[in-house]
Write a structure and sequence with these properties.
394 residues, alpha/beta, 43% helix
Length: 394
Amino acid sequence: MNTLTVTQVNRFLKSLVDGDGRLRDIYIAGEISDFSRSARTGHLFFSLKDESSSIKAVMFAGAARNLKFMPGDGMRVIIRGQVTVYDTTGQCQLYAQDIQPDGVGALAAAYEQLKERLADEGLFDRERKRPIPVCPSRIGVVTSPSGAALQDILRIVGRRWPICEVVVCGAQVQGGAAPAQLIAALNTLNLLNACDVIIIGRGGGSMEDLWSFNDERLCRAVAASKIPVVSAVGHETDFTLCDFAADKRASTPSVAAELCTPDTPGLLDSLRSYNSYFIQKAAGTVEYYRQSLDLLTKSPPLSDRGAYLRLRREKVDELTVKLEDLIKRRLDGYRTGLALAAGKLDVLSPLKALSRGYAVVYHEGKAVRDLAQLEEGEEVLIQVEKGKRAAKLL
């Protein structure tokens, strides 16, 4: 009798399941229940069930970080992963690599979750949105080259703004490869600075058909574009996250083409209106200066030059008389002041005292400056001078 241990049995079962290539990379649909997330590791644990069965599932933190939404109980999903046996418990288990919503309800939940998260980051803020050029010379279009949306855009641009060039950068607009191709097309137009504005979008469809335009990576690429972006996805009632991330949302690709181009007939009407306005303005200005010139030519200096010159000459003569009178009065005042100053100076002058006469005392042939130095009885010579008269006294 060959006896096996529990571990041997579980490992054998695990080897059988792991060895079946049909279970290594499968897609399995079901409803999530018993959902939990480990706060410490970030791993997701849940069960996937249908009407009659369930299977335990786990998604490790590395794969969970790439999810575009957070799963929850009751959400219908499609999971890509591998079925194996957890040999410790012998339990069959699904290791999830990717989770996608299945059905409108799950898509709507994923849409709202991602919308809220990107809005909290400020990706949809109005302040970061840029104006769309009024008269672009080149319009970039990111859409399917074979889609009706491109033909609508080309038709409207050709009618409204035929001088504009349209640069088409083709990409898939539906399916798993669409987001990466849309992002590559956006980046190419930005890298080459190929246009003045970009229209990204597609025609209408179901929520699943438009889901590529809810891709988080695409939304971030639209927001990061250096060239203004107009999002035109689906019909008027369709809203994608790409619409919120773009600088402008158009209800349809046709409306996007209208937003990016001026109306040529309307523009010509405006130009004609401006032309008429400027002609009238110029004519009014010319008439104003013509009337001013007429008034100048009729003024006395130009209409009767002789009379004007006589009037000016009389004015000059009048001013000359006033100036001469002012100069005479000023000079008379200066003469009077000078005479008064000269009289005061003459009174104080030592020459005035000398002109009345003076005496010089000589002793032994030398002039004596201090009489107190002479002794009594000494003989001196006193010479008195006044004008040309002189006398000698002993």
